[in-house]
Amino acid sequence: MIAGVFRRQRAAILTAALLLVAAYAINATSALRLFYPHAVAEVAALPAASPYRAGQRLLVVSPHPDDETLCCAGSIQQALAAGAQVWVVWLTSGDGFELDALLLEHAPRPTGAPLAGLGERRMGEARRAMAALRVPPGHLIFLGYPDRGLLHLLRENYGRPYTSRYTRSTRVPYAQALSPGAPYTGRDLERDLGRVLDRVKPDLVLAPSVRDAHPDHRATSDFIARLLAARGQAGRLRFWIVHGGLEYPLPKGLHEGLPLLIPPRGRHLAWQRLDLTEAQEDGKLRALREHRSQMNVMARFLLAFVRENELLTPQAAPSRR
């Protein structure tokens, strides 16, 4: 038995070491020089996204606080500048990030109240980030469902309450949420998201792609796509990707003059390029810096999304060949 434990530990250490070597190789200057010019040319050849227009009603559907800024801060600024109205809804409050809570609370294994406190903090950061982009406070909606639990709500916990492994809650614990005390079920989440659609009546919805590697992002995509399809409005969706594959996006860190490349997990999707002005890049950076709890933990990853363009696709998944 002990030998088996050691073998598993050795395998885990070897896997981690191989991933570190791969990450170093991918980030190495020589590797970037090999693939980067071709990747840049691919982005330059993409068609431009349709411009936003006056009177349009845009809804950004974000799994966690910070996703809305990473992939949509440019869209938000351009929509508002064109005279559109913008709303943002967050499905979770980001209360399942143990490393973040560990650094904030100095607890060896934070659960319960510390992680719920992290959720409160991240909602405050999201409000400040959207204030930096001039989104009206009344257009910000938090649902408060369990971080890292949305895929469970979509599947085995659609009708029976889910217990968060982080906050230990079975219900929405936030007074500022749309439905405080709502059970952690897919049915309740779907009902709340439907209420948001009824209130906003969006012409265009920006949401994560099912090709995103994060399970919360994939579940968010499924929930919103299902609701819009039932209303005959599936064509109003545009998708984006945050977790796009190993070491995406490259290069890491702040490089405002470089393009955001097509994510490996999103290859074969019909991407459109939304070009940002320097002022819009700076606005995105200001909003991103309001997510301080996340910047303290993974700044180089987050800053890598502040680029001269954003990427959107009307395709939920690649076409069958």
Q: What does this entry show, briefly?
A:
This protein is α/β, with parallel strands linked by helices and 321 residues long. The chain has helices spanning 2-27, 29-44, 67-82, 98-105, 113-132, 150-154, 186-200, 215-230, 278-289, 292-303; strands at 57-62, 85-92, 140-145, 204-208, 237-240, 272-275, 309-312.
Order of helices and strands: HHEHEHHEHHEHEEHHE
CATH class identity: Alpha Beta
Major sheet description? 5 strands, parallel
Major sheet: order of its strands? 3-2-1-4-5
What fraction of residues sit in β-strands? 5-15%
Count of distinct structural domains = 1
Specify the helix fraction band: 40-55%
Total helical elements: 10
Task: Give the overall form.
Answer: globular
How many extended strands? 7
Cα(first) to Cα(last) distance is 48 Å
Oligomer state of the chains in this structure: single chain
Structural class estimated from helices and strands: alpha/beta
Question: If you average the pLDDT, what whole number results?
Answer: 89
CATH topology: Rossmann fold
CATH architecture: 3-Layer(aba) Sandwich
Q: Return residue spans where pLDDT drops below 50 for at least 5 consecutive residues.
A: 16-29
Radius of gyration: 20 Å
InterPro entries: GlcNAc_PI_deacetylase-related, LmbE-like_dom_sf
GO molecular function: hydrolase activity, acting on carbon-nitrogen (but not peptide) bonds, in linear amides
Organism: Deinococcus aerius
Protein name: LmbE-like protein
What this model shows, in words?
It holds the Pfam family PIG-L. InterPro entries: GlcNAc_PI_deacetylase-related (IPR003737), LmbE-like_dom_sf (IPR024078). This is LmbE-like protein. GO terms for molecular function: hydrolase activity, acting on carbon-nitrogen (but not peptide) bonds, in linear amides. It is a single chain. With 321 residues, this protein is of the alpha/beta class. Helix content is 45%, strand content 12%. The protein has one domain (46-312): Rossmann fold (3-Layer(aba) Sandwich). The protein has helices at residues 2-27, 29-44, 67-82, 98-105, 113-132, 150-154, 186-200, 215-230, 278-289, 292-303; strands at 57-62, 85-92, 140-145, 204-208, 237-240, 272-275, 309-312. The strands form two sheets. Strands 3-2-1-4-5 form a five-stranded parallel sheet, sandwiched between helices. The chain has a two-stranded antiparallel sheet with strand order 6-7. The longest helix has 26 residues, at 2-27. It is globular and about 50 Å long.
